Amino acid sequence: MDETVGRLRLVEAKVAAAAAEAGRAAGAVTLVAVSKTFEAGDIRPVLAAGQRVFGENRVQEAQAKWPALKAEFPDIELHLIGPLQSNKAKEAVALFDVIETVDREKIAAELAKEIARQGRAPRLYVQVNTGLEPQKAGIDPRESVAFVKRCRDVHGLAIEGLMCIPPADENPGPHFALLARIAGEAGVAKLSMGMSGDYETAVAFGATSVRVGSAIFGTR
Ligand SMILES: *Cc1c(COP(=O)(O)O)cnc(C)c1O
Questions:
Q1: Residue 136 confidence (pLDDT) above 80
Q2: Is the CB of residue 63 below 6 angstroms from any atom belonging to ligand 1?
Q3: For residue 154, what pLDDT is reported?
Q4: Ligand 1, from 8, 11, 34: best to mutate by most atoms within 8 Å of Cβ?
């Protein structure tokens, strides 16, 4: 078996085990394979192995490699998991199936405009900066319930879930718990949380999708 596919299978098994351990249904957690910095040649075996959900953090990089792969595998589901600049909203709406990084009014407005113009509506998540880290994208957790409401009421955007990236040097559990609590208050169903180092913990805290890169594709 291809090495990458071997690691994919291991991550799938660990996600399933963590879900079972938490008393959650098999299939309650979607694995988003994060392919940033890897080329089509590295991604192809993972596609051949049946994986269809992928994450990229840069619009331009994704534009260079995914249109051809999407033409070949029409059921690919591509997630934008990196910061979105408003001048890239047009490209993001055209390419991505899920945009996980809605985090400010201007982006919400630009996305609403592009969705109306293109007649294509990616599913949307709000990114929450649970650790209040100044260098990190995401909305202040104290403002996030009101922001989700404004996305709906002011911009007409259906927000499906929340996403967070806990501080690298902290126990992620409290951050996952906070995200789950905000989702409950905001009335959104999906939780994108957990990366290579902490996805099993995230599943225990209710993640409905985990974003795993290096544990599948190797170190970047
Ligand atoms: C790169 C990235 C990941 C995957 O990180 P790994 O530690 O390689 O699994 C997940 N989420 C976001 C937002 C990322 O940028």
A1: yes
A2: no
A3: 97
A4: 34
